[in-house]
Amino acid sequence: xxxxxxxxxxxxxxxxxxxxxxxxxxxxxxxxxxxxxxxxxxxxxxxxxxxxxxxxxxxxxxxxxxxxxxxxxxxxxxxxxxxxxxxxxxxxxxxxxxxxxxxxxxxxxxxxxxxxxxxxxxxx
Length: 124
Known about the structure:
The protein is an alpha/beta fold and 124 residues long. The chain has one domain (8-123): Hypothetical Protein Ychn, Chain: A. The chain has four helices and five strands; from the N terminus they run βαβαβαβαβ. It has helices at 20-35, 68-77, 86-91, 108-117; strands at 8-13, 39-44, 81-85, 103-106, 120-123. A five-stranded parallel beta sheet has the order 4-3-2-1-5. Strand 1 (8-13), helix 1 and strand 2 form a beta-alpha-beta unit. Helix 1 (20-35) packs parallel to helix 2 (68-77). The radius of gyration is 14 Å and the shape is globular. It starts with 7 loop residues before the first strand and ends with a strand.
């Protein structure tokens, strides 16, 4: 019998350390979905890509939420996919070697493919 495919969601994060709450929410929902055995891709764009830079996410805290470091680490450990906008990191002079382990730089075609495969797409 063929294995049933998992449901998939894509969550866009467009806020960086300047807005800790909106920076954290994609990972709060992403972790919840992973616990529910939903496949999740978080796509960071705009200033959101700063969160994937080594040394940044460790310093982001939103009132009432776990530290962003804990959220991102749990997301990656549970098998979440962390996609980073290549043009956005290029614009900010962030080299791929400056990204946290598990961050995958991608261009538009990959993002479109992820959205087409997803049941739902959400943006923060």
